[in-house]
Write a structure and sequence with these properties.
The complex is a heterodimer of chains A (about 350) and B (about 325). With about 350 residues, chain A is of the alpha/beta class. Chain A is built from eleven helices and seven strands. Classes of the chains: A alpha/beta (about 350), B alpha/beta (about 325). Magnesium ion (MG) binds next to strand 4 of chain A.
Chain lengths: ~350, ~325
Amino acid sequence: MSNENDTQRTNEPARIFELYKTMCLIRAFEERSEDEFDAGFINGSIHQYIGEEAIGTGVCANLRDTDYILSNHRGHGHSIAKGADPESMMKELMGRVGGTSGAKGGSMHIADFSVGMLGANGVLADGLTMGVGAAQAICLRGVDAIVTVFVGDGTTNRGPFYEALNWAMVYELPILFVCENNGYASSTVTRSITAGEGPVARAKAFGMPAFDVDGNDVNAVDALAADLIARVRGGGGPHFLHARTYRVKGHISRDKMLYRPEGETEERFKDEPIGRCAAWLIANGFEEAEIVSARDAAYAQIDAAVAAAKDASFPNKNLAYADVQDFGPPEPWQQDGGAA
Amino acid sequence: MTEMTFADAVREGLAEELRRDPLVWALGEDLSTAHGGTSANQYVGLIDEFGPKRIVNTPISENTIMGAAVGAAVAGTRPVADLRMADFGMCAVDELVNQAAKIRYMFGGQARVPLVVRQAIGVRKGAAAQHSQSTEAWYVHTPGLVVVAPGTPADGRGLLKSAIRADDPVVYMEHKDLWLASGDVPDDEGVVPIGVAKTVREGSDLTIVSWSKMARLCEEVADTLAGDGVSVDVIDLRTLWPWDKDAVYASVCKTGRLLVAQEAVQVGGFAAEIATDVTENCFDALKTHARRIGAPRMPVPYAEPMENEFRVTPERIIARARELLAA
Ligand SMILES: Cc1ncc(C[n+]2csc(CCOP(=O)(O)OP(=O)(O)O)c2C)c(N)n1
Ligand SMILES: [Mg+2]
């Protein structure tokens, strides 16, 4: 998120407390989004990051504003962790003026280029191939930056995953691949449709250094990401970080999860990263009250974001015609009093 | 007749074909889970009756879903490949367009490619740029492919059966907004032939040609215009290639006026083909030039006021129809 992080050491309680706050912000954003979706303020669908907050948080804590990330359909957490403004994001979800993408995209198309967040994505695996391109641009322009691409476990079965990993190695690109293994691909258990030993073995097959981490342990993610990102930055070429986690909610918020064994969610939720981080902080000198008030502050910030989004107006319909292309932009409707 | 939703009717139709012919099978993402398909349970329960060899829950591997369907079709089976959404279907355009559509021809007629590709089209509220596209014109433009776009539960079931039985590769496009819409479905086999349109409103002043969900909106349009004393022939094309020229020509010869309505982006769309063809072949019958209506040439935006700018609404169709009637 900022350059100071480069000099901070991992596992320092003050640093972990900051990560805790970011995770709370993501959790609050996801919970409130679901409420507002159910209340009819958000259209389409939302893919929540609940239970997976430690990964985006721990990784992005080691990135700079000038670094790029490419996200996927489950992108709210990545966006917040990379420094996108939750209020602008909530406006995007509610389709209001001031949304990160001008209300053109919604949940699955959040982007904030000002903080190097090059976009969530509705099409699986496209972030991987675009990510290697962004890394090539970094090399061509000779700037000091790296690329991080987030990819789900299910998506590792799409061809572009292999093309991107191979390409990154061939051109020794400054790129970190982060695989978020939450066990599921929509309603399917990913293992049931995946051969071999999994993403780490697959990455290693390309000769790429690949490492596995408990993705619900923010300290561990942060420490591994710090190490790998330092290597990528230092010219060490592509690296692969595989984070084991669990998708606590449905694939999308209104998914009833009929395919999931009863009790599984509750059992796995015991391992969720925010509670674990809070316990670590308390064991490392923080007062319970500090932790509670940090969490409350996160919810208050998101509640304010929700209120601000509801206060914001809907975009003028004529904006629909903006930003399509320079040459040959669309012709608006004529008959119904639409834009001239 | 039994009333059921589009998704249920099509699932029934698929089950009937699976029972009828042991070489029919389906493949796609999430087909065999309790979720059973995209979001309308289009496959739910089929795994129990037909097992995992015929209801194949695939990895997220669009190229191989499509490519495997092509390979399995030339090797003697009848696969139904589900690409979920036309937007993801684009990930497998190569296998469909460069392989499925051309194999019979390129190889001098040695092989047939009897497969069905299901791809959902259309704007579903808030689905935005990458989950809302209507790409039927892409496939109509591709020699070798049949394209169907049913707009009712009965047609959904009946055309799926014809698509499965056809020896050509068939692109089967279903509108997301129709999945949960109900309608009467015949209790008999209910096969709907490929290439035959259906006149869903009879009239003498104006012909409106449409397909998929848009045909339902055009029925509303006809009902509204009837209030003004304008009688409209509404033709639900159902099959886009080969389209039912006889039905359209006959209607235009009766009314002398043609409007073609599509949900897809107007520029380069299939409506243009119909309007041009009718102009070339029924010119003497036309009282004024044929017109078309389709969406502005822009990606589908998210926020409602902008999304509504993309939509071809009944009001907009009526405005274009009035303009045509006044000419
Ligand atoms: C090319 C493509 N195919 C299918 C889909 C539909 N889809 C969206 S998310 C998803 C599952 C993704 O699973 P995974 O990669 O594990 O990510 P997760 O949702 O678990 O975070 C599917 C099949 C899509 N968006 N794009
Ligand atoms: Mg997953």
